[in-house]
Amino acid sequence: MLDNKDKKPLKRTFQGVVVSDKMDKTIVVRVDRIKCHPKYKKRYKASKRYKVHDSENKYKIGDKVTFIECRPLSKEKRWRVEKSINK
Questions:
Q1: How far apart are CA 67 and CA 13, in angstroms?
Q2: What mean pLDDT do residues 54-79 have?
């Protein structure tokens, strides 16, 4: 997908729950999705874990966060925290 004004690709964003904050400046966020089986049409929950850059170490386990795609920061980190969505 391209942005019409700048002709740059749009950055992907996800929402998830922090499941680990043991690393320095890194959190692990679990993103849950509902998928549908192609043949049997049964819905099931699938989850994936992302390593996300948290420069201030302010997010803790259980926080709901939104994160956005960015340049590669390390071998596995290609995401950075955008904001918290806790109520």
A1: 6
A2: 95
